[in-house]
Each structure stands twice: as structure tokens, then as C-alpha cells.
Amino acid sequence: MGHINNFSNELQEITVAANGKPDKLYALRNKLDELCAFIVNEENGMHWEQWEARQELQEQASLLRDLSAQAAGVAEKLRAALACSGEGISDLYIAMLTKAASAECSLIGNTANARVVFVGAGSFPLSALTILQKTSAQVLCTDIDEEAVSWGKQVLNLLGPKNTRRWTYESSHAPSSYFLDGATHVIVASLVPCKLELLKQIIPQLKSECKLLLRYGNGLKSLFNYPIDTDHLSGLQTIKDLKITAIRDRRKVCDTLLLQKKEAGINIYSIAAEVN
């Protein structure tokens, strides 16, 4: 528990020092990479299971989660600034996000009529870029941070497809109804809080064949992801008669829930088995 408290203090100090200073990204990046490595360490996972019921640990974990979300937001803006100035970025967190997005591309496929909504795309919308590069989908990004939206548009203009009609970026907590109505896939970022409330808002607007991918992190992974109480998901199943499958991999910094109507005809349990 002392390790988490010390890490929180160090992360907060580095985040404050790095804010608005692209040359400080590397110190912040290294600290976030340290957190990622701690989370995917199997031994740490076993220790967490022994101690996670303690209230003090939960309070420290909640504080670290908020600090890591803030740090990730600052880091994304610095990455965007560096990318727009022509510098490449590579780190463990970016590598993990790229793998997650690549796995999601296999679900999206390469059909021309795919319409993907990404909620919480951030200043450096790597997942959206990966989807745009590897599929023919149209992509709508949203974020509540207007500065992140501004940076995200610059990054997509710079690194995205030449056909700018394939993507758009909105400053919003939830996507526009007109795009949700035709969405084939919805992806919710792991650092989006209040996930259950967002699902209740989005799900009634989705067409029956839409796949909803919700990134989250429970247990030790909640140090760098907003968690979701899976016990409360049963109420969502009655909204659209959903089948909900957890796609977990201890080697990844976040997990994914796949939500889809039962009669859509896809064997989503086989998808889960491939990544476990």
C-alpha cells in the first residue's frame, strides 16, 4: 500500500511539472510505463487479490486512478504537440493501446459500410488512427475536453487518411444521435468514468447488429482504468436483450466487455477464447 501512495505522489509531481512542456513528456511517459508494467505483473496481481478488500487500499487506488487519468491526458496533449512538430512517439502505453486497437479492427472488419463511434478518443486518438488505417470504416471521435478535441483534429489531419470525410471529431460526452443510429461499432475508452450511466444513454439508440466494446479495468487494473461493476450489468441486458462477454488478458493494461444482441448470430464466446 505504501508503494501505491509513494507512486501517486511521484506521478502528481511529474504531471504538474510536465503540463504544457513537450520536453517533459519523456519523464511522464516513463512513469506511466512503470505503472503499466506494475499492473501486468502476475505477482502483483496475486498480492492485490489478497489485499484489495481493505478500505485504505481502495482509497489509495481511487486516488492513483484519478491521478493516472490526469497524467494520461497531459501526456496525450504533449504527444500530440510533438507529433504535429514532426517527432515520433514510442512507449509501452502506446504499444499496448496499438495492440488493443488492432484486436478491435478484427471485429470491425474491412467493410465499406462500417461506422465506428469512439467515446473518449483523447488528444492523441491512436485507436481511431489505427482503425482508419486498417479498415475502411468511417470514424466519429468524441471527447468532453475541448482542448483534447482541438489536438485530436490536428493529429487526425496530419496522420489520418487523406479522405477527411472518413472521420469527424465532436466535443461531447456522448455521440450525436444521427451517427449512433447508423453505428456498427461503439468503443468506449477505459478512462471514461461513469460507464454504466453512459451505457444507459447509448444502448437504446443502437441498431440491433451494433457491437459495443467497453474498455475497463477492475482489480489491479483499476489503478489505470475506470472500473465497472459487472454485477449491475444484468439490468442493461433487459434494455436490448444483450449478451455480455468479458475479454480479459492479464498481459494487457485494460480489459474489454463486448456487448451485443443475442440474436445477432455471432459466436462471441469464440472471440473471447482467442484472447484469453
Roughly how many Å is the radius of gyration?
18 Å
Cα(first) to Cα(last) distance is 29 Å
How much helix, percentage-wise, in residues? 40-55%
Overall outline: globular
- How are helices and strands ordered from N to C? HHHHHEHEHEHEHEHEEH
**Overall mean pLDDT score?**
85
Instruction: Give the percentage of residues in beta strands.
Output: 5-15%
Q: Count every beta strand, where a strand is a DSSP E run of 2 or more residues.
A: 7
Total of helices = 11
Q: List low-pLDDT spans.
A: 264-276
Biggest beta sheet attributes = 7 strands, mixed
Secondary-structure-derived class: alpha/beta
As laid out across the biggest beta sheet, the strand order is 3-2-1-4-5-7-6
Structural description of this entry:
The protein is globular, with a radius of gyration of 18 Å. It contains eleven helices and seven strands. The C terminus is likely disordered. The longest helix has 30 residues. With 276 residues, it is of the alpha/beta class. Strands 3-2-1-4-5-7-6 form a seven-stranded mixed sheet.
Observed structural traits:
276 residues, alpha/beta, 7-stranded mixed β-sheet, disordered C terminus
Task: Give a quick rundown of the structure.
This protein is α/β, with parallel strands linked by helices and 276 residues long. Helix content is 51%, strand content 14%.
List the helices and strands and how they pair.
Elements: H1 2-18, H2 25-39, H3 42-51, H4 55-84, H5 92-108, E1 115-119, H6 126-134, E2 138-143, H7 146-159, E3 167-171, H8 177-181, E4 185-188, H9 195-202, E5 211-216, H10 234-240, E6 242-247, E7 255-261, H11 268-275
Parallel strand pairs: 1-2, 1-4, 2-3, 4-5
Antiparallel strand pairs: 5-7, 6-7
Helix pairs in contact: 1-2, 1-4, 2-4, 4-7, 5-6
